[in-house]
Amino acid sequence: MQQNVLDTPIEYLKGVGPQRAVVLKKELQIFTYKDLINFYPYKYLDRTKYYKINELNSGINAEVQLVGKIIRLKTVEQKRGSRLVAVFTDGTAEMELIWFQGHKWIKENLQLNTSYVIFGKINNFNGLFSMPHPEMETVEEHKKSLQSALQPVYPSNEKLNQKNISNRSITKMMQQVFIETHHLFKEVFPESLINELRLLPKNESFFNIHFPKSADLLNRAQFRLKFEELFFIQLQLLSKNLVRKHKIKGFAFNIVGDYFNSFYHDHLPFPLTNAQKRVLKEIRIDMAHEAQMNRLLQGDVGAGKTIVGFMSMLLALDNGFQACLMAPTEILANQHFAGIKELADKINVKVVLLTGSTKTKERNQIHEDLENGTIHILIGTHALLEDKVQFKNLGLSIIDEQHRFGVEQRSKMWKKNSLPPHVLVMTATPIPRTLAMSLYGDLDVSVIDELPPGRKPIKTLHFFESKRLQVWHFIKEEIAKGRQIYIVYPLIQESEKLDYKNLMEGYEAISRDFPFPEYRISIVHGQMHSKDKDSEMDRFVKGETHIMIATTVIEVGVNVPNASVMIIESAERFGLSQLHQLRGRVGRGAEQSFCVLMTGNKLSADTKVRMDAMCRTNDGFEISEIDLKLRGPGDIMGTQQSGVLNLQIADLVKDQDILKLARTKAIELLKDDINLEKPEHQALKYVFEILAKKNNIWNYIS
Q1: In sequence order, what E strands does 526-589 have?
Q2: Which of 583, 587, 567 is nearest to 485 (CA)?
Q3: Nearest to 237 by CA among 161, 159, 294, 165
Q4: Per-residue pLDDT averaged across 13-41, rounded?
Q5: Residue 310, CA distances (Å) to 268, 322, 395, 397, 401 in order
Q6: Which residue from 148, 215, 384, 473 has the fewest beta carbons nearer than 10 Å?
Q7: Residue 643 pLDDT more than 60?
Q8: Where are the domains of the chain?
């Protein structure tokens, strides 16, 4: 198929025109013929079944299809405007067809006592059935139309309905685009792959996705198009990784020297787990090569990622380089600084903190010491990205919770040395394997999948509001044992729309139930000044306050081993991964820790699944898989971060097997022909290059 025909603007398609084109562009992002062909149905209806009116019952929840005649038309006045009502009969009974808009056009085009096939959702009011805004065509039209037994149903919305762009309209447009393009869609896969996987040819796949000739052909068309979509995503990510390893030079850290060895043998605060040792080895092998390392380090809360990150920094120091760690918030940066400085002081490594709160005089000294190499490790927030921050010799950049940083921001780290530094991305947000493959498929992945010995699993309990006194009694018992408590709220100020506990109201209630001076309370939320926030946090860290009332600003990074209880108010307001992250703030010490989920009495089915999952398991990867099934990939990571998750037909939850197959086949193809130079791969290469151009200039930034 000639590419330029598929690129024809949608307004030139017969039956569309300028006005409809405006709606299609705005509501469905359909700009060209190609966009229309790639606008897929979300379900299919069996149009071989015709109901009789006397067979209808209020239990029918799906759309139905009937054959009959309109015998009367009337206009009924309402408080606002009017509605057009037609009496429809099929000989067994009567029902009403109702239109709230477009009366004039409908009246002019309806014919009394003519046989129609009507289709739509039925309503039942006082025993009388009605169908608002039905799709209609004469029996003759119905027989002629290019429709199979399985009728496609396309995504729609109110704006489309208002502009009379119905499912039938979309179907007619689809018929027309197939006529104008002559069904000639260029095959992209080599014949060997098509034969091996028994893929339906591209022409047949497109036709059967919109006008399936049978259920079997529909299934094969869906498989083919899903595989193709996922294959090209994986091809992009994998080739990016291979190009990086072959073309983007890094610094080779061949020496494992005094810094690393003295810390490992003499100052390690606890033995490393086998998982930590395995990950360290993977990092060491990566950094010993001249290719730039780009590795994602996943580990559940408390798995010991920071010590692995610190020891990776020591490898950079042993080879004459500096290292830095960038965190998304000042609280988290301070936490990393405190932990790493304590370890670094033992081996005379100079660690400095740089955040937005750093005073100008101190900042200027940091800039000077960085450039002359006096500072070994710099820890901070976005402040590290400023142009003024220049290193003498940056060799390793660690980015914590990288999905909170934009690609453009992360790219600035590459420019801090003549060759880009090695990059280690750390996340305490367990990412489901399929999502990791599609979001971070261009990175090498390491997973710390075991907790340090001696950690007791956190006990998670779910209580309804009616049990609050019991929970308050439990808190007092824990404080009496010398423990500290977190209480987290989803909202800062009262919302008229949401009847949930909010932080300020909660603070007042808790202050009454836990009176000063017997109980001392800290409060932290995102609208406080950094200085006040840090001061309150510091009081809690030092054990000067018993209870920390907070919003989710404490979600990542706060490490208070003495805090043994996490109370999450209105837990139904939080996503599953966020609940798991909050739970990870406790369980840092040797004592038994608890997470208490407080909810209202009425819970949705999804909320029940979330609460049950939290109470059943502490495994972050299991939690993340459940969360992916409940919310989908876009909600978990934010599709704007990935640049690759704007999937048109594939589903990362339902199509995991197809994704794995697509990745395997993309790996095999690149191993055989990394530059796609073979004659049989030219069509693939053409599509691949178009996709590569669409990618932004940060194509090789992790």
Answers
A1: 547-550, 563-568
A2: 567
A3: 294
A4: 92
A5: 11, 12, 13, 11, 16
A6: 473
A7: no
A8: 48-147, 258-448, 459-617
Structure tokens at 52: 């009789």
In angstroms, the CA 377 to CA 649 distance is: 46
- What CA–CA distance (Å, rounded) separates 90 from 97? 13
Query: What residues contact residue 691 under an 8 Å CB cut-off, 6+ apart?
Result: 232, 236
Find the farthest-apart pair of alpha carbons in the chain and give their distance in angstroms, rounded: 95
Q: What is the DSSP letter of 346?
A: G
The CATH code of the domain at 48-147 is 2.40.50.140
CATH architecture, domain 258-448: 3-Layer(aba) Sandwich (3.40)
Is the Cβ–Cβ distance between 14 and 190 less than 8 Å? no
| Amino acid at residue number 532 | D
Which superfamily is assigned to 459-617 in CATH?
P-loop containing nucleotide triphosphate hydrolases (3.40.50.300)
Which amino acid, residue 334? N
600: phi then psi, degrees, rounded to nearest 5: -70, 175
Please tell me the total number of residues recorded for the chain in this structure: 702
CA distances (Å), 405 to each of 365, 425, 702, in order? 27, 11, 11
pLDDT in tens, 275-304: 999 999 999 999 998 888 888 898 877 788
The structure tokens listed for 206 are: 């497109």
The residue with greater pLDDT, 297 or 641, is: 297
3-state secondary structure of 270: coil
Report residue 311's pLDDT band, with 50, 70 and 90 as the boundaries: very high
DSSP lists the bridge partners of residue 378 as 324, 352
pLDDT tens, position by position, 425-464:
888 777 777 677 766 666 788 888 887 777 788 999 999 9
Give CA–CA dist 309/397, Å, rounded: 10
Q: What is the DSSP string of 351-409?
A: EEEE-TTS-HHHHHHHHHHHHHT--SEEEESGGGGSTT---SSEEEEEEESGGGS-HHH
Question: What are the beta bridge partners of residue 297?
Answer: 426, 446
Alpha carbon distance 382, 377 (integer Å): 16
Closest CA to 702 of 443, 414, 444, 445: 443
Q: What is the structure's pLDDT at 104?
A: 81
**Higher per-residue confidence, 688 vs 472:** 472
Q: What's the N-to-C CA distance of the chain in angstroms?
A: 35
Residue 113: Cβ within 10 Å count: 7
What is the rounded CA–CA span in Å between residue 82 and residue 269? Answer: 78
- Do 380 and 362 contact (CB within 8 A), yes or no? no
Do 258-448 and 459-617 show the same overall fold?
A: yes
The reported pLDDT for the residue numbered 566 is 95
Tell me the per-residue pLDDT of 73-103, one tens digit each, with 9 for 90 and over: 998 888 888 889 999 999 999 999 999 887 8
